[in-house]
Design brief:
The structure holds two protein chains of two kinds.
Chain A lengths: L1 H22 L11 H9 L3 H10 L4 H9 L7 E15 L8 E14 L5 E16 L15 E2 L4 E18 L2 E15 L5 E18 L5 E18 L7 E2 L1 E5 L2 E2 L6 E2 L1 E18 L6 E18 L6 E19 L2 E27 L4 E10 L2 E19 L2 E18 L4 E19 L5 E20 L11 H12 L1 E15 L4 E15 L25 E13 L1
Antiparallel strand pairs in A: 1-2, 1-24, 2-3, 3-5, 4-10, 5-6, 6-7, 7-8, 8-13, 9-12, 10-11, 13-14, 14-15, 15-16, 16-17, 16-18, 18-19, 19-20, 20-21, 21-22, 22-23, 23-24
Chain B lengths: L1 H15 L5 E9 L9 E4 L4 E4 L5 E8 L1 E8 L6 E7 L4 E6 L15 E3 L3 E4 L1 H7 L36 H6 L1 E4 L2 E3 L22 H6 L16 E7 L14 E6 L4 E10 L2 E11 L6 E11 L10 E16 L3 E17 L4 H6 L2 E18 L7 E22 L13 E4 L6 E10 L1 E17 L2 E16 L3 E4 L12 E3 L10 E14 L5 E15 L11 E13 L3 E14 L3 H4 L3 E11 L8 E10 L8 E14 L2 E33 L15 E31 L8 E16 L3 E3 L4 E2 L2 E2 L3 E4 L4 E17 L4 E18 L7 E2 L3 E3 L5 E3 L2 H8 L4 H4 L3 E2 L2 H4 L2 E3 L2 E12 L2 E13 L3 E2 L6 E2 L6 E10 L6
Parallel strand pairs in B: 1-7, 10-13
Antiparallel strand pairs in B: 1-4, 2-3, 2-5, 5-6, 8-9, 9-12, 10-11, 12-13, 14-15, 14-52, 15-16, 16-17, 17-18, 18-19, 19-20, 20-22, 20-23, 21-32, 22-25, 23-24, 24-27, 26-31, 27-28, 28-29, 29-30, 30-33, 31-32, 33-34, 34-35, 35-36, 36-41, 37-40, 38-39, 40-44, 41-42, 42-47, 42-48, 43-46, 44-45, 48-49, ...
Classes of the chains: A mainly beta, B mainly beta.
Chain lengths: 560, 930
């Protein structure tokens, strides 16, 4: 009897897994184009979706899934969607991200199963948007390059246009599945007020992978990828004759006084060579206990080049992302899922020492050469998200989920030469409810989720004392402000609702995601020294302020 | 020459008596769903062509006995080639042409070599390139480099050269459906804008956007209305004239086609097009209409750089059959191009309150009627007539801030006049209106004879007439006392453009094609032609008045082999580009020199007396720019594998150029107050000053036939057939170009300094023979992976620039001290520099002479060499039923190594940015006429 029940439970979870795989396409309706959207996806996304998304990144995922599920899985699907989102902050914000955002996009996603010829899949999107109130940063995707920024001291609103295309092919060759994937993401961002900034940022990724399905449906996939990132930044005054200082930053408010010249404009190239590997494992289908696991190792080497063709600094970033899900079917209608996601990011900076030397005396021409280097900058973040979820399916068309979890976020930024240290540690207990409701004729489908997070700042340490008073400091703007942003106690409520109407050959639906964060910077996170460089940039207050953020996204989609 | 012509026609008459029997080849062309109406059918070797009627019926008349390759082409369908043997009776064919989709293996997405050295870019290739203007297509041609399109400013056109020059751009001919597109009637004469004025700076907004004397503005030619483009970079047929640097023939879309909607977005451009070809009913012909909208901006931050273009075109065509053997092909085209560039308001334009507005409006009408008689003597008679009207108006509200008091020439005559001080800040309103009306008519006759078995002669001959009249007002400053560019006290008083005589040119040509096929595996072709042209309506003083210009053109080829074919090619020709209206009729420059300049804070006590000098830049000796071209080529074809090599040499020493001359000016000068003069509290007069004279040199521009451009190089092209294992076609093309830019006139140099209170008294004339030599070797590699079962084409494009050099040279290289061979004094007399004087110039002893010595350093002559460059572009297109989605990224990866510049002794690297976008095309409907 018990054996039959367990088999029924396993069968149900297998069916749910198939449904989840087919429903997974809805996760592609929207792209993360703003910091708020990225925060939503990181902190409020369903854990089941999150791990599925990680597994889906394997180069041979579709071919492996085809073998695992056989004919019960309909792989060939396509989706067209449009989405828009808006978000804004109040009080503390990260200056390099800006105060608010608004974006719109058009998305296409498709998988074509050509039988024995393999599986072709791809996606494309075009998006427009605007990020307002950016300050002390003229780069896009600043977190990839920080602390090595180059910026004006005016700030403003950044508009952007984003293009993305991804295509992959995977096929079974005997017992092995091989796949290759190519992805390009390009963005042009610009500012229409002085100094006018232009950023051309691209990410080009090649991924190859192989996988095998072992007896009973256990699968193991390994992928290797290379990503080339390039960002061109050009920041220039349009008003004839106007010049200002452009800052070449080194972190903690330090900047290169000689390179930070008063000029009409400045330009720079950022490059990142990024290699990585991911391993994905899924246990056999039809078993009572199922495991999904994924681990990613990622290495980034970032370097820059000024218009004078000197390389001022570089950084090396290593990231490890282990994640797993253990699902246990307790009864045919009840299952228990354990989720764990972690991310450890370690960055080391290297600053070059350059010499200007005479190359042609007759024409007084000078050039630069490297004569040394310093390795002073260290940055470490550790984030974990662990949760346990109980799912109850009273009928095949109704599934409820209840989840409790806790997140830990720690960041530590250090300059070993000057003994500067900035540290934030937060824990975030959270509670989540999910519901999936389908009508009897399966035409109507509604997915609902609500999550509550409470962030508690458990440790904050700001130890930055710039000794050199001969120059104006910018530590408040570039170092204290991010510290203050993380030193906050907040309460956040997030919600997600997806309605899908199914017809015989296609389906259409609407998706709504939102969150609202209300909080306050901790009382001891106060900047008591004089603010070094007065500018018109949007900026936080030195005294503790509120930490509020609101974000809403609406998507409409058609699946065929 | 007379004997050649007599011989030619004698031979012609004699050989007609030997005419052999020929047969007709006819049939019906169908496609997937019905008849392929209005397809073209051609035996290219023999220049026999016909247009199918709306039911796909065609007849090629008088086809000689033998085996021929017949090419069938129609918009929206895949080209088809049939080998047909004509023996002793008429041949009837039933031909099926499939619809061109990416699910068919034969779809062509590259340029193909066609007729000698011509390259043709077909409809699917145009679609695949995703152009926004015709200039984007030229990346397919060997030797051309990939560049991101730039629609904001005028870009010079180039042909077989490293870099660009204005004369090559001007000499690049573009014909649309047989009608030359000309900008020769555009005339802009205004200080600060035209090249014959040397007013510092000027209006960059206008200069960058207009291409005066620079040929066809490719930005206004939308590719959405184009079916194919044929590029001939070598020697053109004598049918085409007034060109000197290659020729581009554009063929419009016509006939029946599905509704096609195209949307393209990329970092610079947003383009939308819709077009469809309709059948108008039984025997009523077809009408193809389409319109596109383009919004473009090179730097998205620049509100003033936005370019908007709207084009619409309607093309009617029909074939009317008269009796059994005659028919008339009728084509009528109405095209409209509108461009509106209005300066948008941003924080800066508000601050300066300036405006820039450019409205371009072009209407084209074309009528073509071709009578097919089927007779030998006049097989076809074609009349092409076109009329176009362009309205190009630039309107400026311009803020002028003068650093010091400027005067404004008010007088219309030379000599002393009361002057006028300009305010230190004011707004100048001006507009430049060009309304060229272009009329073109050409009569083309064609005769075809089979002179002997396997020897055929095809003769095209005819005459054309071109007239261009500008009805615009030209440059108009609304308040002449507030000139927009007063920096050197120069001013023009432009005549209205409509007061300038029309440019009229007449020409006659004869072009013969001799085809000899001694065996089935050998073909010899000789294309020989002569073109005679003359400019009318010129004043008698012009050297070109009544001058008959002759341009011989010769292309010959010999092909041998059946499976493995070898072709040797040779060409020689002379091509003439005639001067434009702007070059023929420049304006005089009025320049003020200060005789008395008493400027005080009190306006009532100011007094300005000027001496006005008039400089006339008109050159009545101006002649055509004559370009001599030679080329030889060798081609191999083997089962779809092609290798093509072309070596060429071009020399032009009479390119148009506003050359800088110096003229001495001596005028009275009142600067030093008399000892007893008291001018406090009153307006000073000449009597208060000691009378002196002052001499100086003034420069002015005069159009001369002085620019020299020498081009030579080797172009290569290797095309592989599809490699089945990887489903990929490979094309490798490139060129080695060596280009020399120089001047055929000596160089003038004025030190522009003072000796004591006086201006330096001499202008040196130097026999520099200054040249800039540029070389480049490049290879472009195209890997087109076409997987029909997935409906997918994936292109990898790699561009390698193996070497790229630039070097300035002159006769003083290695000496560094440039000494004149003559000099001009303040009397305008030219003196030879004797060895004794040269010694003085080369020593520092006498201040009067050593300033004529021009010093340079080794860096001036250093050869700038750039390292190997590489870039990689990708493009993927997926076809879903009737929809195509494309994504492209240019410069997705590039290798630009650091190098030490030899001319600046600094480390350099060239930065490139990826350029990307996507395109969506919908096709709704069918390709058939019935």
């Amino acid at each position: 009897m018990l054996r039959n029940k367990l088999l029924a439970a396993a069968l149900l979870t297998a069916v749910c897994q198939v449904a989840a795989a087919q429903n997974q396409i809805v996760t592609h309706v929207r792209e993360s184009l703003s910091p708020s959207a990225a925060r939503f996806d990181r902190r409020f996304q369903s854990s089941a979706s999150a791990i599925s998304s990680l597994l889906e990144k394997s180069a041979c995922y579709y071919s492996v899934e085809k073998q695992r599920f056989g004919d019960s899985l309909k792989l060939s699907q396509a989706m067209v969607s449009t989405f828009c989102s808006t978000g804004e902050t109040e009080g503390d914000f990260l200056p390099y991200e800006g105060r608010s955002s608004r974006d719109w996009g058009l998305n296409g996603y498709g998988v074509s199963d050509y039988g024995k010829l393999g599986v072709l899949y791809g996606k494309a999107h075009y998006a427009l948007g605007r990020h307002r109130g950016i300050s002390w940063n003229a780069m896009r995707y600043p977190e990839l390059y920080l602390p090595y920024a180059i910026t004006d001291s005016t700030g403003g609103n950044s508009r952007f246009e984003n293009y993305c295309a991804e295509g992959g092919y995977t096929k079974q060759f005997g017992r092995w599945h091989l796949g290759a994937n190519f992805a390009f993401n390009g963005e042009q961002a610009y500012r229409l007020t002085d100094p006018r900034v232009l950023n051309n940022t691209t990410f080009l990724t090649f991924k190859i992978g192989g996988g095998r399905v072992f007896d009973g449906g256990n699968s193991l996939c390994v992928s290797l990828y290379y990503t080339r990132n390039k960002q061109y930044e050009h920041d220039r005054y349009w008003r004839p004759g106007e010049q200002q200082r452009f800052f070449v930053l080194y972190g903690f408010g330090l900047y290169n006084n000689k390179q930070s010249t008063v000029a009409f404009g400045v330009s720079r190239m950022f490059y990142i060579n990024n290699v990585g590997a991911d391993v994905a494992y899924q246990s056999a289908i039809g078993k009572r206990l199922k495991i999904k696991a994924n681990a990613v190792y990622d290495y980034k080497y970032m370097y820059t080049e000024e218009s004078s063709i000197v390389n001022l600094y570089n950084s090396r970033t290593q990231t490890v992302n282990p994640a797993f899900e253990i699902a246990c079917a307790l009864t045919p209608k009840v299952s228990l899922n354990l989720f764990s996601f972690s991310q450890i990011v370690s960055r080391r900076g290297c600053e070059n020492i350059l010499e200007r030397y005479l190359t042609d005396a007759a024409n007084s021409t000078y050039d630069y050469r490297k004569i040394g280097e310093e390795r002073n900058y260290k940055f470490l973040t550790v984030s974990t998200k662990n949760a346990v979820q109980l799912s109850i399916a009273p009928t095949p068309n109704i599934v409820f989920g209840i989840q409790a979890g806790c997140m830990l976020d720690s960041r530590r930024e250090e300059n070993t030469k000057y003994k500067y240290l900035v540290e934030n540690v937060n824990i975030t207990p959270n509670f989540r409810l999910d519901a999936r409701l389908r009508s009897g004729n399966l035409r109507h489908e509604l997915n609902l989720a609500v999550q509550y997070n409470r962030q508690i700042a458990v440790r904050n340490n700001y130890d930055v004392e710039i000794k050199n008073n001969a120059i104006q400091h910018v530590d408040f703007q570039t170092c204290f402000a991010p510290y203050a942003y993380h030193a906050a106690n907040t309460d956040a409520l997030a919600g997600s609702a997806t309605y899908t109407h199914h017809w015989a050959k296609f389906a259409a639906g609407l998706k709504l995601d939102c969150f609202n964060t209300v909080g306050q910077r901790v009382s001891d996170a106060e900047f008591t020294k004089p603010i070094g460089y007065n500018s018109v940039c949007p900026m936080i207050t030195p005294e503790p302020d509120c930490h509020n953020e609101r974000w809403l996204a609406v998507s409409a989609f058609v699946i065929f | 020459m007379r004997y050649v012509i007599i011989l030619f026609f004698s031979l012609l008459i004699a050989t007609t008596a030997l005419a052999q029997s020929t047969f007709n080849v006819g049939g019906v062309i169908t496609t997937d769903d019905g008849y392929a109406g209005f397809a073209t059918v051609a035996i290219e070797d023999l220049q026999i062509a016909a247009l199918a009627d709306e039911n796909g019926r065609f007849t090629l008349r008088r086809v000689p006995v033998g085996t021929h390759k017949i090419l069938f082409r129609r918009m929206g369908l895949v080209d088809k080639v049939l080998t047909v043997s004509v023996t002793d009776h008429d041949v009837s064919l039933a031909v099926t042409m499939p619809t061109a989709t990416f699910r068919i293996a034969d779809v062509e997405v590259m340029a193909r070599r066609h007729k000698a050295d011509k390259l043709e870019i077909g409809e699917t290739a145009i679609e695949y390139i995703q152009p926004v203007s015709i200039a984007d297509l030229f990346v397919l041609l060997p030797g051309n480099l990939h560049t991101d399109n730039s629609m904001t400013g005028f870009n010079l056109n180039s042909n077989r050269q490293v870099g660009t020059d204005q004369n090559s751009s001007l000499g690049m001919g573009v014909t649309a459906d047989g009608v030359p597109q000309t900008s020769d009637g555009v005339r802009v004469q205004m200080v600060g804008i035209t090249q014959n004025s040397y007013s510092g700076g000027g209006d960059s907004q206008v200069k960058e956007r207009t291409g005066i004397n620079s040929g066809t503005d490719m930005r206004y030619i939308s590719t959405d209305h184009i079916q194919s483009v044929e590029v001939n970079r070598g020697i053109s047929s004598s049918k085409y004239g007034n060109i000197s640097a290659g020729q581009i023939q554009v063929k419009s879309k016509y006939g029946v086609s599905p509704l096609r909607v195209r949307a393209k977005i990329d970092l610079k451009n947003k383009l939308f097009y819709a077009g469809k070809g309709f059948s108008l009913g039984e025997k009523a012909g077809a009408l193809h209409i389409g319109a596109d909208y383009l919004h473009s901006c090179d730097d998205i931050r620049e509100e003033m750089e936005k370019f908007t273009r709207i084009t619409a075109q309607a093309y009617y065509n029909n074939k009317i059959t008269i009796g059994l053997s005659r028919s008339i092909d009728i084509d009528f085209k109405l095209a409209q191009t509108i461009s509106a560039n209005k300066m948008k308001k941003d924080e800066l334009t508000y601050e300066y309150n300036e405006t820039y507005k450019a409205d371009y409006n072009k209407t084209d009408l074309m009528l073509k009627a071709k009578l097919n008689t089927g007779a030998a003597w006049i097989e076809t008679a074609e009349l092409v007539a076109s009329f176009s009207r362009v309205s190009d108006v630039i309107d400026r509200h311009y803020c002028v801030i003068t650093g010091n008091p400027k005067s404004m020439p008010l007088s219309y005559s030379e000599g002393e006049h009361e002057g006028y001080y300009l305010p230190t800040m004011y707004y100048s309103d001006f507009y430049i209106e060009n309304i060229p009306l272009n009329f073109y008519a050409q009569l083309n006759l064609n005769s075809r004879f089979e002179i002997a078995p396997r020897l055929n002669l095809n003769i095209e001959y005819g005459a054309d007439f071109t007239a261009t009249k500008n009805r615009g007002e030209g440059a108009v400053i609304e308040n002449e006392k507030l000139p927009p560019f007063p920096s050197d006290n120069s001013y023009m008083r432009p005549r209205k453009n409509y007061d300038i005589p029309a440019i009229e040119t007449g020409a006659a040509y004869v072009q013969s094609r001799w085809t000899l096929k001694p065996t089935e595996n050998q073909t010899a072709k000789v294309d020989f032609g002569y073109r005679f042209s003359q400019m009318f309506n010129l004043e008698s003083g012009y050297a070109l008045n009544g001058k008959l210009l002759c341009e011989p053109r010769l292309n010959a080829s010999y092909t041998i082999g059946e499976m493995l074919k070898h072709t040797l090619r040779f060409g020689f020709g002379i091509e003439n580009k005639l001067p434009t209206m702007d070059y023929l009729y420049p304006e005089k420059i009025y320049k003020d020199f200060w005789v008395l300049n008493a400027y005080t804070n009190n306006p009532n006590n100011r007094h300005l007396i000027t001496y006005t000098k008039i400089f006339d830049g008109t050159n009545r000796d101006i002649r055509e720019n004559r370009n001599k071209k030679f080329e030889v080529g060798y081609d191999i074809d083997y089962k779809g594998f092609e290798i093509s090599l072309t070596a060429f040499y071009e020399r032009s020493e009479s390119g148009f150029e506003y050359f800088k001359f110096y003229m001495p000016v001596t005028y009275p000068f009142f600067s030093q107050l008399k000892e007893d003069a008291d001018i406090s509290g009153r307006r000073p007069e000449k009597d208060d000053y000691i009378a002196q004279t002052f001499s100086e040199f003034n420069s002015y521009g005069k159009v001369m036939n002085s620019e020299k451009v020498v081009k030579r190089g080797i172009e290569y092209r290797v095309v592989s057939p599809k490699i089945k294992a990887i489903e990929t076609n490979i094309e490798v093309n490139g060129a080695y170009y060596y280009t020399v830019y120089g001047s055929s006139l000596p160089d003038y140099f004025y030190p522009n300094s003072r000796i004591g209170q006086n201006m330096y008294p001499y202008v040196g004339i130097y026999d520099l023979d200054a040249q800039t030599k540029k070389t480049r070797l490049n290879t472009n590699v195209w890997l087109n992976t076409h997987i029909p079962r997935f409906g997918l084409i994936f292109t990898n494009f790699f561009q390698f620039i193996w070497t790229q050099t630039s070097q300035y040279t002159d006769r003083f290289e290695g000496i560094y001290k440039k000494t004149p061979y003559a000099y001009i004094d303040f009397n305008g007399d030219t003196h030879e520099v004797t060895p004794e004087l040269a010694e003085k110039i080369n020593s520092n002893a006498e201040i009067e002479w050593f300033q004529l010595r021009r010093q340079s350093t080794a860096l001036t002559y250093a050869k700038e060499e750039k390292p190997v460059y590489m870039l990689w572009n990708i493009k993927a297109t997926k076809e879903f039923n009737s929809t195509k989605l494309s994504f492209f990224v240019n410069n997705i990866f590039d290798v630009h190594p650091q190098y030490v510049s030899n001319t600046s002794a600094r480390t350099r690297r060239e930065w490139t940015n990826p350029f990307f976008g996507m395109e969506l095309i919908f096709n709704v409907g069918k390709n058939v006429t019935k």
